[in-house]
């Protein structure tokens, strides 16, 4: 049961993720594809004009552009920027590695650097994920403590809890608060607000220093804090900044705080998604069970059921399972009704039969009235006498 529920949850989540990806691909394709086609047309037109103006072949120009792309991967740009692999640049790079951001604007070009990156990233990413998990635990503890304090203050204002902390009439409420936990929705709301505040403050810093628009700065914050790391916008890449040391420190602090908050928010949202999936599975299971029970009822509506007759509206999974287990032996033996059900439904008749058999054996047969004799039913002995007497009584009643 537990394994089947986990498998069902896993399959449903996989299907929902695939559908989510298909919808996202359709939306992004509809939005971005026209702009990409227009940019490609403008680029082809510029290439043709450039080759015509300078009397160059298009193949030679494309070969030159491919060489520039290779130089760009190595960190060479047209504009003057700071070296990618000085100590500060390398420290920024390892920060993007262990945080799994991976902007992509700086990548190792040597074989030794690529091999070292594999082992370095393996340990660094694992350690950073552990740090994020521990940070999440402590953050949830702080949030729970603050929310519990606020909850106790509200109870004291309403007079449910004593103000001096003594156990009086509110002792049960105090005991109930010992295991009190905040709602996951409140935690998610607090983390959303904290992430939004950090992103807005960081964007206010990036906009004047990097020369981006405020919306681009917010976009960079989400891409960086969520560790997506496209690399189209990367902070701290110019060769000189005003108050360069202070800016780089602020950049490091904002990225660290933003990644921790967004990572914690993702974990809380995953809990909400899991609850939603469980709710969907429960609804689907209830519908399937109701359908199966209706079919089972239709297939058995002409069968005489011993004992108490179950009403159709009271059928449930538990009761149906219990009743099915009680009739397993009956179905295996091919009997229409089991001896257990027969004895249970005829307990009173068997008691009367036992009493009358005892009277007959002891020489005290039941006296037949004249009306019974006139009906033609003789007394008999034992079970035959009981049957005749019962038939006679029925005939008299009629």
TrEMBL record:
Subcellular location: Cell membrane
Domain of life: Eukaryota
Membrane-crossing segments per the record: 12-33, 90-111, 117-147, 184-206, 212-234, 246-266
Any one GO molecular-function label of the UniProt entry: outward rectifier potassium channel activity
Keyword Nucleotide-binding included in the entry's annotation: no
InterPro entries found in the cross-reference section: 2pore_dom_K_chnl, 2pore_dom_K_chnl_THIK, K_chnl_dom
Primary location: membrane
GO CC field: monoatomic ion channel complex; plasma membrane
Catalytic reaction(s) noted: K(+)(in) = K(+)(out)
Oxidoreductase among keywords: no
Potassium channel domain span: 77-139, 189-274
GO aspect biological process, one term: stabilization of membrane potential
Protein keywords: Cell membrane, Ion channel, Ion transport, Membrane, Metal-binding, Potassium, Potassium channel, Potassium transport, Transmembrane, Transmembrane helix, Transport, Voltage-gated channel
Bilayer topology: Multi-pass membrane protein
Family to which the UniProt record says this protein belongs: Belongs to the two pore domain potassium channel (TC 1.A.1.8) family.
The protein, known as: KCNKD protein
